[in-house]
Design brief:
Blueprint: H1 2-27, H2 33-50, E1 53-58, E2 67-71, H3 77-85, E3 89-93, H4 102-108, E4 112-114, H5 121-134, E5 138-141, H6 161-167, E6 171-180, H7 198-207, E7 211-217, H8 228-245
Parallel strand pairs: 1-7, 2-5, 2-6, 3-4, 3-5
Antiparallel strand pairs: 6-7
Length: about 250
């Protein structure tokens, strides 16, 4: 029964993904940016529901940009959870753009892409992020640079914070946790680290008991007078506190 339920969830999720692809290709050209953002948020919330995941938003998501959101990184599921809480433009690894179906969904949602293997590419991305923030966008980054098992928090890379400093935009820390919806205990079903692959992580998520995706937002912090390396350390501590407060 568990496998059957997971298969049904998977089929519904695939159908919803293709529905999103269709919307991006044929409906988005006729919508305003605000309407597109709303569609992405609604789509993400619906996708979580189809996968048996309930969203819990704690704190106040940013109402409007410019804001740079920084958050811990646990899984591919993080992007869906944050999109469902508030549409933002993510900075994602360049390879995602070329993934079948997912690449179209990611690009349609406004993602900016970075080639992590090329250190100099960060300068190009910071430039584009700065322009986007100056235009009033909401952008989100995972400053750990990779996913973790959720037991701890890796050091934050400071480079992308320069975009907020250059644009004079605030940074808002946030934290994510996935939990068993019945018990509230942390769930590792969506983990995506080491030898995990996307399909096995997705399958484990679909087989798990109903989950709760908790997104907790902290208070925005002004960028005036900040030095990015020192700020990265402070934000690391802030996200640690937010992680402990998710419940």
């Amino acid at each position: 029964m568990q496998a059957l339920s997971a298969c049904l969830k998977l089929l519904r999720a695939i159908a919803h993904a293709f529905g999103g692809w269709w919307t991006i290709r044929f409906t988005f050209p006729h919508l305003t940016p605000a309407e597109r953002n709303a569609r992405v948020q609604q789509w993400a919330e619906r996708m979580l529901g189809l996968m048996g995941i309930r969203l819990a938003v704690q704190g106040e998501p940013p109402e409007c940009g410019p804001v740079l959101v920084v958050c811990n990184h646990l899984s591919w599921l993080d992007i869906l959870a944050i999109h469902a809480a508030r549409h933002v433009r993510f900075v994602s690894k360049a390879g995602v753009r070329h993934w079948p179906l997912i690449g179209t969904l990611s690009t349609g949602a406004g993602s900016l892409y970075i080639e992590r293997e090329r250190r100099r590419d960060a300068m190009r991305v910071v430039h584009h992020m700065t322009e986007a923030l100056r235009n009033g966008d909401l952008i989100a980054v995972f400053p750990e640079g990779t996913t973790t098992d959720g037991q701890g928090l890796l050091p934050f890379h400071a480079n992308l914070l320069q975009a907020a400093i250059s644009a004079g935009a605030p940074v808002q820390p946030a934290a994510l946790r996935f939990a068993d919806a019945a018990t509230g205990e942390t769930s590792h079903a969506p983990r995506y680290i080491d030898d995990d692959n996307l399909f096995s992580s997705l399958w484990n998520t679909l087989k798990a008991p109903p989950l709760l995706a908790i997104v907790r937002f902290g208070e925005p912090q002004p960028s005036l007078g900040r030095e990015r390396r020192a700020w990265a350390k402070t934000l690391h501590e802030d996200v640690q506190v937010l992680r402990r407060e998710t419940k």
